[in-house]
Amino acid sequence: MSIFRTRSSRVALSATAGLATALLFTGCAGTTTPTSSSDDDTDFSGVELTVWNNIDFDPYQTLQKEYFEQCADDLGITVDVQTLSGDYTTSLLQAASSKSLPDVALLNTDTQLPQLAAQGVLADLGKLGIKTDGLADSVADLGTYDDALYGLPVQVEDYSIFYNKALFEEAGITDLPTTFDELIAAAKATTSADHYGIALPGIAGDGSTSSYFLPFLLSAGGDPAEVTSDGAVAAIDLYKTLVADGSLSKEFVNWGWDGIDQWKSGKAAITVSGPWNLVDTSLGFEYGTFPIPAGTSADKSSVGLLGYAYGVAVQADEKREKAAAALVECRAAEENQIDTAVKGGYVPALTSAQDAFVEQVPAAEAFVTPVENAFNPASLGTEWNALQQKYVDALQNATVNGVSAEEALTKADQG
Q1: Domains of the chain, with CATH numbers?
Q2: What is the rounded distance in angstroms from the CA atom of residue 100 to the CA atom of residue 28?
Q3: Which of 22, 110, 197, 208 has the fewest CB atoms in 10 Å of its CB?
């Protein structure tokens, strides 16, 4: 399944990681030792490079092609920019096994980058002169594996709350929620016969439910690796209360990434979503954003962070590797990141570009502020795949069958 088919499903890739891991092969280009080039390190004339990405919708794919072609022209490189549809992870892994990876590839940082880095097919960008200056540590870490930089992040994604300003005004809500209790109160106040207070996904299988649930778990002080943590209990109880109050439809267990349609159509006042909705021109109402509320006033709001980084394939030709690294560094320029953010709805990786993004799109502040202290799900490795399913099972059991959050989590953890 391609997670880049639609904006609403971009972050579901981790659900396919188990299959992807099974497709890894032992033969790889990482066993090749680059030969040193006697040419000028900055003279890349005559070098021909291929770039892959799989974000197959506009304006993103057109922008990327423009960035790379302009950078290639500046560097004297010939570049072929290809956008792949379909199962991109499998395409990458098969290319790695046949030693035919493209020179440059866009990689998500939760599964694709660590999988390829572990196979030794990605070049260490640090050794090629690439630095992470201007990136928050949380962002720079997304491109690392075993303390080496294998991908230069150019954009990140996290989650925040979107709300319908008119419905908040009708309900008399003037202070935006900062805790779970305040979110519950706001959802209840905006619930009517015509619309629910909040819309969240609860379906299993497509990755949406766990992606939306994770920020609540983190913001209640939970450790994602500990299924029965107090933070996980608080997050489950949040959903249980919203359903019990009638603020969240019982049908939410049938909603996936398309659950945001409830909010976009005016059938819900509040939802959680990613930065791509910042550039959605189809909305028929004025919206606002605010960060994921903390569990209590003693907790801190937190989110999971997904990155997109460009990696360079290991090559026998050192000059080719250096040319690819130079191309990536050029693509990652601040102006390119700002342009992608404003037009495409991604959070820039560079802190300076994030600031510029907020200046142009004030609602982006709710996404930019949490980045510095965000959690990297890739730190859980392949364990995160199993953990996600446990949380979804517990959430459904608690809200549908009425069991306590503690019991639901314990059963899911043992199952």
Answers
A1: 7-157+305-377 (3.40.190.10), 160-303+382-414 (3.40.190.10)
A2: 9
A3: 22
